[in-house]
From TrEMBL, chains A, B:
Entries under InterPro entries matching the protein: cNMP-bd_dom, cNMP-bd_dom_sf, RmlC-like_jellyroll
A Pfam cross-reference name: cNMP_binding
Domain Cyclic nucleotide-binding residues, every copy: 35-121
Name of protein: Cyclic nucleotide-binding domain-containing protein
Amino acid sequence: MDPLKAKYNYREHLQPFAVFNEDEWALFCTYMEFVSLKKKEYFIEAGKVCNHFGFINKGSVRYFHMANDGTDITGYFSFENEFMSSYKSFVKREPANNYIQALEDTELILISYKSMQEMLACEKLGHKMERFGRLIAEYYLCCYDDRITAFITQSPEERYIKLLESGRDILRRMPQHYIANFLGITPVSLSRIRRRILV
Amino acid sequence: MDPLKAKYNYREHLQPFAVFNEDEWALFCTYMEFVSLKKKEYFIEAGKVCNHFGFINKGSVRYFHMANDGTDITGYFSFENEFMSSYKSFVKREPANNYIQALEDTELILISYKSMQEMLACEKLGHKMERFGRLIAEYYLCCYDDRITAFITQSPEERYIKLLESGRDILRRMPQHYIANFLGITPVSLSRIRRRILV
DNA sequence: TGTATTTCTTATCTTAAGATAACGTTTTCT
DNA sequence: AGAAAACGTTATCTTAAGATAAGAAATACA
């Protein structure tokens, strides 16, 4: 990973949430950690407290839950230039109930919880970081809202069609059995829906 | 409604999100609007932009979506001492896709979007309000996260049992056919689940 | 109080989803 | 290149959910 390019990219994708002047940016940069995950490596595992808030510079990750019988259930995906964390665990400081795993070799820029608290508390960045945190949380709140609305107002088939229409990377880059869980159904069921739609 | 008591109650329930000194509180109070809704009145209707963030001092509300065929689908409930808004619409300044309706005579303390922006921009309250907004959004993000996890990892029956165990007011105070939608199923289906569980 | 409305359950029928297994294909790994 | 693992589809069987209608019980209301 090239930290210089990664930082530049990060700064650009932070724009909607926080715009830093040079001074602030320099300070913000001192809190960054650059981490690479090999395919199948974990960013977080259930039972552990998630200590980092991440930005995906390159690659993709899968969020999943482990059922009692050992099967895993995919909850979400994130791709390059998106943020990533086991939010609830990160925010509440409690053990995560999910795993986040790299689906390909992935480059991350991380901010630790401790760093975040320091920035929130510091004179120079505090106000801006509160706003950053607010805008990020609001952004994801809206995404989650859409997701819940889809679950209560649409059938699995309708949800799949919406996903098709959305043109998101998910369909192109994710195995179908992961997408199935994401839609709240089994892989077999998704395969049947696909067949039905073809007609 | 007694605005004095309502303000006192609001301040108490804001504690986890924002603690104001007397000065700040006095200023914050100048932005409050006190509104009462009669049973079945709407706080927001689909198609309109939600201009207020509310606190329920007394009463309860139901969030619902209107399907194409005119049936309504309940998405959520909020009770006294909880916050309430059509968040996505409020945050993104776009028309709401849902309705929020009073289920009984309800007392609200509202902050308009404009007031919120003024407070966020003001010297005295800005920093604190950013934090307030962040903590509120994070709080609801966690709730939504749980809800989505339930949809992808649990069966309707399991979701109902969890709701039973949670001891939330929903079961005691809401008609069953509203709860059914909330769980992502039809009222008939919930009735069958209840019967099954009784055995 | 009496009527209307809402709410919940039950029954029937239809449709779809879950569980499981088998099979061919593709991908991964060494 | 060859073996192993992962992936997607299909078939069968079972179970549960949706749609619809009817009726009883509870509630609202005028």
